[in-house]
Amino acid sequence: MKRAIYFLTLALSFAVNTFGQINFDWAKSMGGTSYDQANAITTDAQGNVYTTGNFYGTPDFDPGPSTYTLGSLGGIFISKLDANGNFVWAKDINGAIHNTGLSIAVDAAGNVYTTGHFKSTSDFDPGAGTFTIATLGDADIFISKLDASGNFIWAKSIGGAGIDEGNDIDVDASGDVFIAGYYSGVVDFDPGVGSFNLTSAGNYDAFVFSLNAAGNFMWAKSFGGTGYDIATSIKLDALGNIHTTGSFETTSDFDPNIAVFNLISAGGYDIFILKLNPSGNLIWAKGIGGTSYENTSAIALDVSGNIYTTGNFQLAAIDFDPGPGVFIVNPGVGYDVFISKLDAAGNFVWAKAFNGPGNELGMSIATDNAGGVYTTGNFTGTLDLDPGVGTYTITALANDDVFISKLDAVEILYGLNQLKEQVIIMVQEFVLMLWEMY
Which domains does the chain have, with CATH numbers? Predict the structure, then answer.
């Protein structure tokens, strides 16, 4: 089955039902006759667009009239388009087709950082040279750095005997790199000649670790208990504080040092929101959950340091106030979307939910400088996008459709029947720079 990669608006033929106003800029696609998937997208100060994911076969990575294919027959790709959607370059990490790029970031100099996992010996130099790294286990974490022209600078790997995943990456003003994800067993987080072993307390533990701009180890921290603890998203504030979110179960210790700061799940998987200082030391940790299963997909910050998360919950009511107060949000049917806001100190501000009779997933979240909060994800059936006492119901035209919401202004994209699995580029990384929103 052909699966092309669609950028941002996915297709020109989508109907847009506007409750606010949105101005279309452009849409691009790239792909081939096989399986091609984009997992993450970001932009730089000039509006260039960077994407990573995985491909199979020989897709065309130039969305224009020309053709640009990569030398390998599958693996991880990294692509760059300019602010108008024109092709600049595409690179591949040559290895197994099951290797995957999951997150991408760009620093002030235009250097491109990618993380994800790889499952066999892979060449991380996309140029004429070679830089081969072998895996230690079933899946290892990689971190790759290219310059603004796509030339290889360095690559590092982290892993042990089990499954280890780099889910998200961010970079600070100095070019220091921060990665969040999960690991199992004993893992050496120093990719250099030294060693810095961490041992998971349970099946998976969450981690945050940092490398400097040269790829040298700075520090690593882990969090967890005897169950499954996974970090899904990471963001830095202007002071270099680190915010990460994910899911945990049973009792998990979120102080990465000698002290103990336990969060106890109410049942199933609960949500954690964690704030560390620039050295990786605990500032605070908060847990949110109910008696069923709750997951976060993404975290965002506004200019005041307020913290926003989105994800999904199901079946049971949730108390979204992690403090002594109570703020109950009730579920609909299946999976429902939530949006939560805490202040910079981790105090509850508000929480909202989008309910419907089907399954709804909140996949990514972003803020603008005016205080707007944008969420995107996918839904089935119908969905009420007014989290207040009113209703603003939309209906999916296919099995899975995309929604984009701004609190007090809603935009909906329809018509994703044949493209439903390709929603991932839209719903996992939401970039405001290519939309003019009012």
Answer: 5-437 (2.130.10)
